[in-house]
Specification:
Largest interface: A-B, 46 and 46 residues
Oligomer: homohexamer
Largest sheet of chain A: none
Radius of gyration of chain A: 17 Å
Strand content of chain A: under 5%
Order of helices and strands of chain A: HHHHHHHHHH
Shape of chain A: globular
Number of helices of chain A: 10
């Protein structure tokens, strides 16, 4: 939908935001650099967008970007919600910390803005969001969280170097094999999303910038 | 399922393979380094596995690796099939070429073996699979395919450097905005899958090695 | 002064800040990982600290970190003020943009927090600060500012590759030889400061986090 | 000889190969991107080529590429045969494993194809050749072979970082000082050959692709 | 001053040098690639230049390069002299060794020539200067000096990876917290100077080349 | 021979050198970190060593390092002499410039010292040797020599990225196909030698340091 149909899509959320000028002026209306008009949403996806509006006050731009093809949107939403919201040995905050540390390695503007806000909100600790986005090594983390992020960032930077010793380090930090899967799957997912966002110059909703500062 | 239940899962496909010794001896039975016993598959996923057996003669190990959680398996299958098999301006072979060139950058054993076989099979040109896995720059490609792979590999290596000029190069090579999305989405997907595979030491079905040589 | 004397030094500024908990809880009291007690400031430096308190409401932690040695503090302040505040063909905002883009390459927590706040404040454009800290290539910049940051970041990443053509690109973007010096000098200065900050685990004043959001 | 004279040179080997179409169609006739017609071979080199035909069924293209200058060809053959075939504490398979792991780091199409085939043939273990070419870290190797390849690949990637501790690790794995020389010399040789091949776009004989699969 | 006024500035030193032809022919007259005519020096800076002439026989070109602006020159001289000449737990030779090892990582021609000469002169050991410029890891250093250079070069290459363990290694090697500051500050300073020199194509006085060989 | 037999081998050359203390004190007696006693030289190699003594005043340590095995020594000498001394479109100085620029990328102490001296001697231009060893991009080179070194260093750093356009750039600079081979072969050879030297901690004869300064 990107360029065409953004007035509608951005509608309700925009009301809650201060008027945005400057660097992000158009970010709520021109969502990507590709001209892919939104398809009519399936009933499920329309309901999901409505739920976003209700709970967040806006539809995240990544969803609008996928809205040119309902099948792709549905697949993305299903995978995202399973990874980030379904039961896991990792807390939702921990999964968002992985998202931001991975996105920092990949210098992905969209994901750093959107998921940095999530870390600030879920943690109630605004500097933690900054630390994840700037250099997670400078954060005062528990040994568990440090091991988790070291694995996720090594997996991002040099996946070919992950070996048994890396998995053993996670186990020593208290993670189960299922937890290791989840760390890998979340890190992997953002390695995908970072690249879709960078490839399309995806812009984050401007409302994120001031959240939970 | 990985370690426990592999006898069943690998069953039918194994019959078609020569007995495998040496480097890959256990690859058909111990699929990942994580101990995640297979869940009972949902009827949809059971049907999908049956279809793999019927069409391929085996269930790809990546599916068995995900079988510890039906929701994750279903989300993976939905996204994979949409990206690799649904209608697109990119041919199935082109999508597999992206898969292998990305996996070569990430040096992912599982994906290079499985998708290298796919390039050989779909192209009927065994050396093309080797070229994608070894150095796509050495292949004699059309300008279109070269531009496609240059974008996919740059997006893999340095996603933060993708800019308007990179998208313009794709458009000059004849790609539509929808094609650009698909190139990005396939490249992104294998940046995810490569990392899940490397994080878990996923092993490719040994049957792939001799396919279409 | 770092560990010992921080109660005094952080005093006045702290009043303007919300109580900080979480990731940055101690950042206003334990400024570096080195135990270097503050020396008695020279009258000039004492006056300078008083001026910081008056104008900013706090003394930036980098100054407190240097306060263990008045000569080093004075040399740092003299160079900093000349580079960032003296007349130049570069605006103060442009110099801060260089500071942040360089610090982003070097992933320096202190400088990203402190100078990210400066970009937000000087520009009145909060997302611009985020863009400089996350990926300056994603910002919508003038050709002049883009050329300036491309030079500064290349000089940071691969100084050995700067050649006549790089200087020519700056001249084509309208910069004078004196401007080129200033771009180089500011980029160079933050390559120094980033390393002093990272070497000592310097922590930014917590007050920066919420400024100009 | 490259472009001109390939019909003769490729002669006998070609009979044993299926007609090659697609990616490697011309690889047996246009061996490099340089136009360097073959010189008349010295009697020693002519005999050596004849021996290749007899034993392998073809003359490896690298030899044909050097045939424009008999002195260069003879020097190359002398060094190659000493390193790869003369008595050594390293088995011939181990030397080929080093060749492929080094060539994988350097992404050299010629050497990966030719020496990958050698690993498959000497080991009787086709996946071992793939593992060396794709990511040797994913192979199930003995501690000895892993130490050998770790040294060879570090020496390839960052020769300036090799120090006493690296040699000590080889000694702990059971290697003598002479073995260490041989590991270094083989790794060094392929760092040379990879570059001559890449610089000239050298193409591997198509017969290699299907060998020992 | 660079291009214009070099006859004067280079004057006295030039008498002591052999006529320089070849690669460095113009290095004593065209000091940088920027056209920044020298300002009239302040009395303090004029006295400092005179002292250089008296003690060294020439004014180092870096000072002439800064002479277009007395304030910048004075700030540079103040910081340089404090770091390299003021009392410190690091000897002057050790500080010069850091200067050269950092400049080697950054491949800075000016600093390698000028400070390589300083290492040769201060140590009375010409090969030590070469080792610092070529690969400090190949030098036979004390554990203390090796730890010092490892920290300085890691801080240069990957400042974001410096953590408590790196500081602990320095403490184990006998360095105080003040020494750690000094190592960081000298390494930081040359990361600045290397970049100013590379950005401006600064040329070293030709007299350095033959010093203390 | 390395450790054992160095007194003899270093004999004559040592007379011309000042006594060496400090960093390189033992470099003329302990040539590598491996204990590989010299074999009795073949008559040809003995004659070659004698010729070195006569013409250079010493036997280069690399030859002594290879002397543990006459076949390896002879193969090395044959290839070296063909590449560096036989007729070529590249002058001997140009071949030495490639040797040093490649060795600078690989930070090889042995080769930088030995071949840096060769560049100084052959060119009669001492700073040219320094420029090749420090950053060839800072040298004032002809377009021909710059193109030659750009190719050689790219081939060293990223051989997988060499393509037709790189060869075309050499042709535009006036190089023939045979010249391109020679550039590649010399660059390749030093990529081998750098690694053998680094793997064995090979030390350069101390006499090189003061040559042609």
């Amino acid at each position: 939908m990107a360029k065409r149909d953004s007035k509608n899509a951005a509608g309700k959320g925009a009301r809650k935001t201060l008027p945005c000028t400057g660097a992000a002026a158009a970010d709520d209306t021109v969502i990507t650099a590709l001209d892919l008009p939104a398809q009519k949403l399936s009933p499920e996806m329309a309901a999901y967008f409505a739920k976003c509006e209700e709970k967040l006050g806006f539809v995240p731009n990544v969803l609008k970007a996928y809205a040119f093809d309902t099948a792709k949107l549905a697949a993305f939403v299903a995978m995202y919600n399973d990874l980030m919201l379904a039961p896991s040995g990792l807390s939702k905050l921990e999964r968002e910390m992985i998202a931001v540390a991975v996105s920092a390695h990949n210098r992905c503007y969209y994901c750093l803005v959107a998921h940095g806000a999530a870390v600030r909100t879920l943690s109630g600790d605004p500097p933690l969001g900054e630390l994840m986005a700037m250099n997670y090594r400078a954060a005062r983390l528990s040994a568990r969280q440090r091991a988790m992020l070291d694995f996720a960032v090594k997996l991002t930077a040099e996946p070919w170097r992950i070996e048994d010793e890396d998995r053993a380090a996670l186990r020593r930090a208290g993670f189960s094999d299922r937890d290791i899967w989840d760390i890998a799957a979340v890190a992997g997912f953002f390695n995908m999303s970072n690249r879709v966002a960078s490839a399309t110059d995806m812009r984050p909703n401007s409302v994120y910038h001031a959240q939970a500062r």
